[in-house]
Amino acid sequence: MKMKVVGVIGGGAAGLCAARHILANNDMVPVVWEKSSKVGGTWVYTPQSGKDDLGYPIHSSMYKSLKTDLPKEVMRFLDYPFPSGESSFVHHTEVQKFLESYAEHYKLYPHIKFGHYVEEVKPVMKKEGPPAWEVTITNIESKKTYTTTCDALLVCNGHFSVPKIPHIKDIEKFQGRQSHSHDYREPSSYEGCTVVV
Q: Any idea which GO molecular function terms this record carries (predicted)?
């Protein structure tokens, strides 16, 4: 029997969990495309904001001193707990380590293509059965683009990567600096300023 290829867009918590359960099914194999060089998705901290060195949008909203607002006991995977420790509310680096450990434990790394950016997804209709999926990917390092077909596809690219900016009447008249919390990293650039949140 031919193995079914299941594409997974994103190597964050949802993408890793999806890949782990795809691997547990003996007739399926995952292929995970992750834009960055690490697993973790939004938990991968960078001091940069806006766009990265290659012009791709920065996915993460992590700031340097962030601790979780949910206890780790709630954030864990049912089959893989966080390491025991004193605090339930952990620094973002602990969540990152947890996700790396999860990927290692379930042997997910061989199935992850780091530095690969999904450009486009299209359904491929068949005469019988569900559609397949044509996925166009760019290898960020080589800048080469290729297309592959998957039997199924899971989009696990998160919902915190695109900031929601409400319309505020006459905001364009404000002459000061405006930024979204998605781009906040640390407080030093605000020293001596009056800040409205």
A: flavin adenine dinucleotide binding; N,N-dimethylaniline monooxygenase activity; NADP binding
